[in-house]
Specification:
β7, α8 and β8 form a beta-alpha-beta unit. The protein is globular and about 75 Å long. The two termini are about 25 Å apart. α7 runs parallel beside α8, α14 crosses α15 and α16 runs parallel beside α17. About 40% of the residues lie in helices and about 20% in strands. The chain is an alpha/beta fold and about 525 residues long. The longest helix is centred in the C-terminal third of the chain and has 17 residues. It is built from 17 helices and 16 strands.
Amino acid sequence: MSDKIIIFDTTLRDGEQSPGASMTKDEKVRIARQLERLKVDVIEAGFAASSEGDFNAISAVAAAVKDSIVCSLARANDKDITRAADALKPANAKRIHAFLATSPLHMAVKLRMSPEEVLEQAKRSIRFARNLASDIEFSAEDGYRSELDFLCRVVEGVINEGATTINIPDTVGYAIPELYGDFIKALRTRVPNSDKAVWSVHCHNDLGMAVANSLAGVKIGGARQIECTINGLGERAGNTALEEIVMSLRTRKDYFDMVCGIDATQIVQASRLVSHITGFVVQPNKAVVGANAFAHTSGIHQDGILKARETYEIMRAEDVGWAANKIVLGKLSGRNAFKQRLQELGISLESEAELNDAFIRFKALADQKSEIFDEDIIAIMSASAAAEGGEYYRFLSMSQHSETGERPKSRITFLVGDQEVTSEAEGNGPVDASLNAIEEKVKSGAEQLLYSVNAITSGTQSQGEVTVRLAKGGRIVNGVGTDPDIIAASAKAYLAALNKLHDPSHIKMNAQMTP
């Protein structure tokens, strides 16, 4: 067995199944480019048959990505597989990922098929897929709760038909690490042609053991592909976290004795980008990418760190992309210094126009706060990229009045298309008043599902990052706004969400449950 671990990232597909985490085509391309900079081996860009929007997004990712394999999910039927192949046509390297449930519960209740029918359907689908691509992955949905003898027959059959990767998902997060590792090992031992395919693990985090289960599948079971997402994003309690897998393999190489090709210095940048686009804030105590992951408060710990970092740190912050020098720029910094810092942060520039727009935003922010941190720059670039496709609603200015004993009032001016409008409203607080003022003119009728505020950096000068999640007509969208003024950031976030509701290309619905 090779000691190389293939990292299969499904942030754009399984991660997107988190309620409210749906992404536009342009957002998927931005994340895919960052995943390519991260040197992910396989990028699962979506589920081509689920919607026209997802089909177009997969095609756009396939055209944009040059080094990583681009993958589309498909149910084990000719129609889905054909749709996946069509979406992947622009890719330099492509993979079709077909899945079919194999557990007794799923076969009887969901598929209403007999085991023999499932076996034949699985083989037939892989045989068909091999006519459209050479790289074919088969996933046995709810594989861990499947009967071992039957699953062996299915796996042997699909490998004979040309499957090159076999994925055994713990679809519902039911597994225990040692038992899951033994299950994968038993399959590989009993399937006669197991050496003809790469074995993969895909674990959900319902019991908080997704990372542990995946590592057990590798160490005990002999799997050589791990399916994961940035920040552990995913439906229900989430998926295996890429950053935790990568740093576990690297930090405990003495135990795993395996390598992966990930550029770990791009991890924090990827984490922030996914968090910004999806609106899912990373908890401060999250391993590797949380704000407190390398913070030391205890005096004993601080003393030890000053004497030797190894006393209380098993990883270096800079190895995963945390900046060693936090304060980088100020209002006197020039355009070249700003561009240089972007390059140091691993942020690519698509055009001079994008740089100019970001630099204008930088100078405006520098006039409001004296110290500009890396996190501020990343937020500036995220906001600039988000606005590239054009904004139907655009924040211009606002004023608000809030006084104890009086009902807060807000006056906001914004663009609706090419028309400048001004609206006033009252609310329970200044934020409520501001959003009411916008809604007074827009009359979207959307339901607000989430409002959250996150400080981008520390201190009272910090920019606030506000996320607003709206739902209307079966669609759920996120809007993110940043500004040193929390009220202004809230208005920007609300308008950003309205822009997505207004955009006819943003039609992605919540996907069905898959591996």
